[in-house]
Every structure is written in structure tokens, then in C-alpha cells.
Amino acid sequence: MTHVVAQLKHKQVVVFLILMVMMVISSVAITYVAHMNRRAFNDLQRQLVVKNAAQVEWGQLLLQHSTLTTPKRVERIATEKLEMETPNPDQIKMVVP
């Protein structure tokens, strides 16, 4: 009978040790996943800052583009720098395709 009790206690000790090892592995895994989650969140925050800066720059470029391509400005540059002028009506020829 004492042999059976000793065998039972031995099995309990083995099960206990296996459970302890599994618990330690589980706690290390949880710590690792939490760390990776924090790193991923920090990367996400950095990328959001980059995205916002790119959106601001895009808005500024659109504003600059609309300012530089106004018909009045194009006409002024054509007249002043390229010395272009509007032709007289008798100089205009219509081309029919």
C-alpha cells in the first residue's frame, strides 16, 4: 500500500512540475506578446504622424498648384516673359478636323 501511495505522490509531483513549467512558459509568452503589442502600437503612432505630415504637405502642394496655374497668372507670364499677345481676329484661322 505504501508503494501505491508513493507512486501516486510521485505522479502528483510530476504533474505539478509539468504544470509549473507550463505556467512559466505561458507567463513568458504573455510578456513577449505584450512587448510586441507595445512595439507595434508605437510603430503605428509613428506612421500616423508621418501620414499626417504627408497630408499637410499634399494640401500645401495643391494650394500652390492652384495658385500657380490660374488663367490670369498664365496669361500674365505669357505676356510679360514670353512676349505673347492675343492675335487680331483676322489672324485667327479655324482648323476643321
From TrEMBL:
Subcellular locations according to the entry: Cell inner membrane; Cell membrane
Keywords from UniProt, A to Z, are: Cell cycle, Cell division, Cell inner membrane, Cell membrane, Membrane, Transmembrane, Transmembrane helix
Q: Which Pfam families match?
A: FtsL
* Record bears the keyword Protein transport: no
Membrane topology type, per the record? Single-pass type II membrane protein
Biological processes, Gene Ontology terms: FtsZ-dependent cytokinesis
Q: Which residues cross the membrane?
A: 12-34
Task: Give me the Gene Ontology terms describing cellular component.
Answer: cell division site; plasma membrane
PANTHER family with a match to the protein in the record: CELL DIVISION PROTEIN FTSL
Q: What does this protein do?
A: Essential cell division protein. May link together the upstream cell division proteins, which are predominantly cytoplasmic, with the downstream cell division proteins, which are predominantly periplasmic.
The family assignment reads: Belongs to the FtsL family.
Q: What does the annotation say about its assembly with partners?
A: Part of a complex composed of FtsB, FtsL and FtsQ.
Q: What is this protein called?
A: Cell division protein FtsL
Q: What is the lineage of its organism?
A: Bacteria, Pseudomonadati, Pseudomonadota, Gammaproteobacteria, Oceanospirillales
* Encoding gene, per UniProt annotation: ftsL
